[in-house]
Design brief:
The chain has about 200 residues and is an all-alpha fold. It folds into two domains: about 90 residues, Orthogonal Bundle (Recoverin, domain 1), CATH 1.10.238.10; about 45 residues, Recoverin, domain 1. The protein is built from nine helices and two strands. The protein has a two-stranded antiparallel sheet. The radius of gyration is 29 Å and the shape is elongated.
Length: about 200
């Protein structure tokens, strides 16, 4: 039996097959592109989001901050707000300036409430890293201090962190002749007196 001749596709057949493949690839690309545009960070969207809380000012103040916290589902005193303030490099507690907002939210790639809500676990996780924790702890000293009057200096503030990490809860390994500041010596003395009474 002679070998069968292969039918050569007509030029129209070939074009329609190519066009069909091309169309399906374009649809895949197009749907990916649309999704990516929605997910991509937008400075314009971030700016509009800022003014939802700032009103006509260039700063989100206490009232705007209250609404902001409510929208992202976090109490204002929650530690994650301190971490967020640190990421935004905010200079004053209860306030985010336009510049702080844009710089910080750009670094977090958040331009909507939903994106920030999805980032909260990441912000909380930063506290589990000892290097970040130390940086956030040090940042909190200047951030939480609302006047230039110091009740505790920065050196003492940092020593409190070291104390909390190295001294046992029962203070059994506290060396009174160590290089701890007087503030902590006084605390230990007060604590031991309290335990005896």
């Amino acid at each position: 039996m002679p070998p069968r001749k292969k039918r050569r596709p007509a030029s129209g057949d070939d074009l329609s097959a190519k066009k069909s493949r091309h169309d399906s690839m374009y649809r895949k690309y197009d749907s990916t592109r649309i999704k990516t545009e929605e997910e991509a960070f937008s400075s314009k969207r971030c700016l509009e989001w800022f003014y939802e809380y700032a009103g006509t000012d260039d700063v989100v103040g206490p009232e705007g901050m209250e609404k902001f916290c409510e929208d992202i589902g976090v109490e204002p005193e929650n530690v994650v707000m301190l971490v967020l303030a640190w990421k935004l490099d905010a200079q004053n507690m209860g306030y985010f300036t336009l510049q702080e907002w844009l710089k910080g939210m750009t670094s977090l790639q958040c331009d909507t409430t939903e994106k920030l809500r999805n980032t909260l676990d990441y912000l909380r996780s930063l506290l589990n890293d000892s290097t970040n924790f130390k940086l956030i702890y040090r940042y909190a000293f200047d951030f939480a201090r609302q006047s230039k009057y110091k009740v505790i200096n920065k050196d003492q503030w940092c020593n409190v962190l070291e104390f909390s990490r190295t001294i046992n809860l029962d203070l059994s390994n506290y060396d009174e002749d160590g290089a701890w500041p007087v503030l902590l010596d006084e605390f230990v003395e007060w604590y031991k007196d309290k335990q005896m009474s």
